[in-house]
Prior knowledge:
This protein is of the alpha+beta class. It folds into two domains: 129 residues, no CATH class; 79 residues, no CATH class. The chain has five helices and 13 strands. The strands form five sheets. The protein has a four-stranded antiparallel sheet. The chain has a three-stranded antiparallel sheet with strand order 10-11-13. It is globular, with a radius of gyration of 17 Å. It starts with a strand and ends with a strand.
Amino acid sequence: xxxxxxxxxxxxxxxxxxxxxxxxxxxxxxxxxxxxxxxxxxxxxxxxxxxxxxxxxxxxxxxxxxxxxxxxxxxxxxxxxxxxxxxxxxxxxxxxxxxxxxxxxxxxxxxxxxxxxxxxxxxxxxxxxxxxxxxxxxxxxxxxxxxxxxxxxxxxxxxxxxxxxxxxxxxxxxxxxxxxxxxxxxxxxxxxxxxxxxxxxxxxxxxxxxxx
Length: 212
């Protein structure tokens, strides 16, 4: 179970369920990496939130005006429904985040740092449960990848979304995005989780246009 604790208030337990066949791909690997400096504060009243994302340069993660549950599903790269239950404040109270590492690093390492800062500041305790779920798999074509070259020195990436061209048309521009990160972002566009089985290492730049 997940026990939410903040100050002296102990929250209700909640199950964090993940696809049993996708354990490694569904969660960013947990480790000891931490941000050099980090600030997590309640969002000022009447402030319009901008979400949470890695900043260009590979050193920072920033968030504005979003609840703890949203930070958690970003940090652990799962879908929102895979983090179940919890007290009302987990969804209703909004927070700003500004965290910076001591040097540029990968998106996977930044997610570990994000996990650790959330665990520390909100005094979280986790229990992971396996659950059978339908899922898609992302694989490489039998002829192998084409026109895809990994960065020689990966740093944290991001995927910029542009949906301004019309209903249903999605335009994505990715900068140094790992396949795990891309798979997680893509899973937000379909009803079931997506599992990365490409075995492609490193991070990539690419443009993707699709209709859904």
